[in-house]
């Protein structure tokens, strides 16, 4: 009798498996189509952030950056900037910006501007979760739906993303995102950055389609600013 119950349970589990896979696919499709609708209404976003870069081996370590981010989409055109105020509780001003396919880093204290010219392939990573439609995600990522979770009072849909581009995948093997699909914005992201390293990004006070600061994507450089091209 005991053997019969085990066999019956195994048969039932196998019978339910196709339905479960189909159900998960239906849920993922529904989430992506909700993102399509929300992204069509998205023009900009601003938020406070905390980025935790974690190393677990060989010596456990964590760096915590805080600041604000700005995103803007006009048709296919996209730009973003992260304004870092502090690192590990101490002032450490920096600005990362991506505009017109070029990624820039401005560091006011050494007064240096570094320009990275071959970053366009990482655009899907930079815009991840802010104004990206479901079809944008499907174009660049293999997507798995992981269910719903409430964060900061917002019911989010969790997605696991694996980049289709092997170069991106080599540097970022996997990304988990918690999406507010009503507004096409991320509340949380976890980037797998290879063995023993990952980065957790949390976003707070998110404002969608509000006016952005006039200097959101620019830098206050001067004649003494050192420019480094890479």
> What is the total domain count?
1
Taken in chain order, the helices and strands follow as HEEEEEEHHEEHEEEE
Residue share in helix:
10-25%
Query: Would you report the number of β strands?
Result: 12
Q: Approximately what portion of the residues adopt beta-strand conformation?
A: over 45%
Enumerate how many helices there are, as a single number.
4
What is the distance, rounded to the nearest whole angstrom, between the alpha carbons of the first and last residues?
Answer: 71 Å
C-alpha geometry? globular
Q: What name is given to the CATH topology?
A: outer membrane lipoprotein receptor (LolB), chain A
CATH architecture title: Clam
CATH class, please? Answer: Mainly Beta
Largest sheet at a glance? 12 strands, mixed
Description:
The chain has helices at 2-41, 123-126, 134-140, 166-171; strands at 44-55, 61-74, 77-87, 90-99, 102-107, 112-116, 141-151, 154-163, 174-180, 185-192, 197-208, 226-229. It is α+β, with helices and mostly antiparallel strands and 230 residues long. The chain has a single domain (31-211), classed as Lipoprotein localisation LolA/LolB/LppX (outer membrane lipoprotein receptor (LolB), chain A). The protein has a twelve-stranded mixed beta sheet. α1 crosses α3. The longest helix has 40 residues, at 2-41. The radius of gyration is 21 Å and the shape is globular. The protein starts with a helix and ends with a strand. The mean pLDDT is 87.
